[in-house]
Amino acid sequence: MSEGAGQQDGNRNQAAGLSAICAFASVAAVGSWYLFPHLFIPFSLVCALGAVITGHVGRWRARRLGGEGRWIALAGLIAGWLMLAVCLLVALLSIGLFAAIFALTT
How many CB atoms lie within 10 A of CB 66? Predict the structure, then answer.
């Protein structure tokens, strides 16, 4: 085996430049949208918080270390913040609905 072939094998199997935290931010964001808030508000809230936190950490690490994945972390951040807003809106609407029903029945 020549020396050049060994160098080619070493370059071929390199680790991915994507941070695991960036990828987790996107997975958590997708999970928060999959578990739609009117059915599973606590689960969506946890996934959205996980997406926001790991999205911020992932963008910070990608910027600091010069790695790839900043856009994936940004997508997780945006989806996480949107899901937090949707959860808040659904919670406020639910509280208002229950208050209106309680006011009408008394």
Answer: 9
